[in-house]
Amino acid sequence: MAELYAIVGGMGRAHWMLEGGVPYLQLRFKERPLAPHRDEIAGWVWRYPGTRLIINNDLDFALKVGAWGVHLGQEDRLRYALAHLRQAPLKLGISTHNEAEIAVARELGAAMIGFGPVFPTGTKALSHEPQGVARLREVVRSVPLPVIAIGGIGPANAREVADTGVAMIAMISALEKIRTHDELQQIALAIS
Known about the structure:
Blueprint: E1 3-8, H1 11-20, E2 24-27, H2 38-47, E3 52-56, H3 59-65, E4 69-72, H4 82-87, E5 91-96, H5 99-107, E6 112-115, H6 132-142, E7 147-149, H7 158-162, E8 168-171, H8 173-176, H9 181-191
Parallel strand pairs: 1-2, 1-8, 2-3, 3-4, 4-5, 5-6, 6-7, 7-8
Helix pairs in contact: 1-9
């Protein structure tokens, strides 16, 4: 059973996802700083206890707002001392694309890994080829951590991804297109 892992880039969409009850919400604000929203985001931890809040690429901000977790890319993890990563009282997620990066994530004490891109994606310029569902299934079977599938996943292929045994399915573009909480719940049910 996979759970929905929503990734959003703005406060308005974050509010909407929280009100829709997504189980995981990652704040990935590429063009806007999170800092001006620190107090509001910190309040979400108590106001929406059913949603696990994850901050993208900023461990210190995640700690300040009491987030459930932080998700770091391969380059972003290098900004932090190993002891800081291991001692942080939150869940650490690391983006991975191959066996070497998975090994590094495990050494860092990651609680989960993001793996992908599963399919081609236009959300982010990547130097990695799509991994495909068969490769995702191999990773799920061989890695003793929860795996978050990411990259080009939407309603049309989400069931196939869920059937690999992943713990979470990250969606970005597909979720931007939906307008009702009923649609959001349909997507969540389709992957569970």
